[in-house]
Prior knowledge:
Rossmann fold; 24% helix; cytoplasm; 11 strands; seven-stranded mixed β-sheet; 6 helices; alpha/beta; binds S-adenosyl-L-homocysteine
Amino acid sequence: MLRQLSAQGLRDAQVLRALGAVDRRRFVEAALARRAYEDTALPIGLGQTISKPSVVARMVALLRGGLTDPATGKLGRVLDIGTGCGYQAVVLSHVADEVYSMERLRGLHEKVRETLRPLRVSNVHLILGDGMEGFPSGAPYAGIIAAASGVAVPPAWVEQLAVGGRIVAPVDVRGDGGQALVVIEKTRQGLTHAVLEPVHFVPLKSGIS
Length: 209
Ligand code: SAH
């Protein structure tokens, strides 16, 4: 999996190391274990999917392009929207000081607690809640990353982002279901937006259930 990611052009050594440190097989059902290292999204229950490793790597690398501490090479506090099976949250735990990971589906949120227990990751904080509202108690965030796509980036994320930080999220940019990866950077002068490559994520929904 890592060889394939480097061949695809992923150059961020810290991201490669983080993906190398997290065994993706632990996050998928036993029946899918054989496919855990393929570069593909896989079902995780309740109609949701674990993201493709190449997309996780790409998005985490983009996030690291923002407010990374030059001394440690790490991000400070990061907000992860859409915990799903917890894979991306644990990858993030290797490149950030603290990870606040939000999931709106109770079933997935509870399952992740079980998945994470043996991994002993002390800097991932799992929150059952509507990620569209963000998580003000952890703000300001060095980075905000989302694994579910809405028609726009929720204003709460922009408010909870630190100056110098980045939001990396899929957005339904044309309003017709065609998504693209969007990077928003908060500078002292205001916000910058970049629309990058097409992506395909599950929808961002409001409320918990
Ligand atoms: N990063 C995850 C990907 C999970 S798919 C992983 O590594 O497995 C995206 C997740 O976003 C789904 O579990 C979905 O339930 C969740 N989601 C959608 N809208 C949300 C919202 N408003 N708040 C929190 N989670 C949300």
